[in-house]
Amino acid sequence: MDIKEAIYARHTVRKFQDKPLAEDVVKALQARIEKVNKEHQVNIKLVTNESVPVWGVMKFFMTKGLKNYLVLLGPDRADIEESLGYCGIDIALYAQTLGLNTWWVGGTYSKNSASKDVEGSVINGIIALGYGQVQGVPHKSKAFEDVCQYEGAMPEWFKQGVEAALLAPTAMNKQKFMITGKDNEVSISCDNGKWSGTDLGIVKYHFEVGAGKDNFQWK
Q: Of 37, 104, 158, 199, which one has the fewest beta carbons inside 10 Å?
């Protein structure tokens, strides 16, 4: 399975098997995280086999087998939420290619209790991962024409990019984004309150994979 196939295969899974991650899977994930952190100047961390809820995560998470997760961290800069959204979904989809399932938990944890350990960093949520009890089901999506506009005859790459974007996980599954295109230029806007930056990064990543980065440029 490659990343594009993972976009269609990945669905939110909220219950995980009580099974540790295989050593080769952890090694592969760590290598991917190191690469992403270096390229995008973020500090995403992988926590495995954690028996205590992360930084005040609600106790019911533990009943769902949440023991492995990504902590989305990065330096305090203007575009950090978008960067963490972009990088987080890259790792989540890569995890899918390794046979894992994921749940983008978002901000349902105590940022205040975490801040003492990561001073100077932005904490943008966690992504639970592991071997799911189920594979999940597709989320309900908006209609294609409700999330995009293209000036002129719409090329196939743009269509495929939008289709991939519609499969992106967004906060509360609101899909409050709009993709516009003209010639080979594309822009995306998001209006989902405090999660707009994160959603923008996630949707951009999905669009790039679906459309092919060589077919367009961001405006």
A: 37
